[in-house]
Amino acid sequence: MGLTARIRTRDGWAVSHAVVTVTDMTGTQVLRVEADAEGTVRDANPLPPGAYTVIVTAVGYAPAAASAIVTASGRAEVGTVTLARQGGTELPPPGPWTIDPAHSTVAAVAQHLGISSVRGRFTQFSGAIEIAPDDVTKSRVEAVIRAASIDTGNGMRDGHLRSADFLDVERYPEITYRSTGVTAATGTDRWTVHGELGMHGVVRPVDLDLAYLGTGPDPWGGTRAAFRATTELHRDDFAMNYNQVVQAGIAAIGTTLRVELDIQAVQGESLPVA
C-alpha cells in the first residue's frame, strides 16, 4: 500500500469529493487521488523513499497541506487531514435533513402597549433541509406552518390572532417559507438564508440570520443538527393592518414582530419512528 489518508471536516464528517495531490521536494506532482464516499484515500502504488508534500483540496473548503515521509516500505501514511469550510464557516454534512417539530420551536415576539412583550409560538409545522454537496451556498430549506396552531397562552388572544384581523386562518391556513439562496455571514458558523415567506395571502422576500450550532448523535441511532435563526417582520408587509390605539396614541400591539427559530433536524428524508 502506498498513500493512505482520511479527509474530514472539523466535526469529523467525511469529505467525499476531496482530491489529494502529492508532490516531491522539487514540486513535481507524483500522485493525484480522489477520496471515496467515506472520505478515505488509498493508493496501492508504492512511492520512492523521501519527503513529500500532500495537498488536499475540495470545493467549498480551504486547501490543507501536510508533510509525509516515505520509508523504504514505499508507504505514506498521512493520517487524518481536517478541512475547514471556505471563509471559516460550517454547515452539516451534505444531503437531506428533516426538521423535528417535537424538538424545535417557531416563536414570535410582539410589543404590547409599548412597554412589554407578548410571546407566541406555532405548535404545528414541518420542514426539510438539503445541504448541497459541492457548493454549500446552493443548500435549500422549505417549511410549512399551520397558522391556526398559534399559541400565546391566552385563548381569547389566540382566537383574535386566528381571525380575519390577523392571520385569517380560514382563508390562509398555511404559512410557507422557501429559501432562494444561502450566503456566508460575518463570523464562524454564521449564515444568511435568503427566501420567500408566504403569509396571509402575501409573499415577500425574508432573510434569516442563521447560526449553525453543530451536530451530534441522538438516542435513537440518528444524527441531529441544531440551528438558531432570527428575523424581523412587519405586519403591514403582509396586509395585517389591524390596530387598536389606547391612551396617549400608543398602539396596543406593535407592528414589528421578532421571529425566533430554534431548530433540530434529523439526518435523512424522514423522522425516526417513535
- Poorly predicted runs are 244-252
CATH classification class of the largest domain? Mainly Beta
Number of helices: 1
- Report the C-alpha radius of gyration, rounded: 25 Å
Helix content: under 10%
Helix/strand/pairing category: mainly beta
Q: Tally the structural domains.
A: 2
Report on this structure.
- This protein has one helix at 155-162; strands at 3-9, 19-24, 29-34, 40-43, 50-57, 64-70, 76-83, 95-99, 105-112, 116-122, 125-131, 140-146, 150-151, 174-184, 190-199, 202-217, 223-234, 253-267.
- With 274 residues, the protein is mainly β.
- It has 2 domains: 3-82, Immunoglobulins (Immunoglobulin-like, Sandwich), CATH 2.60.40; 95-267, Lipocalin.
Features:
274 residues, mainly beta, Immunoglobulin-like, Lipocalin, 2 domains, 8-stranded antiparallel β-barrel, 4-stranded antiparallel sheet, 1 helix, elongated, CarboxyPept-like_regulatory
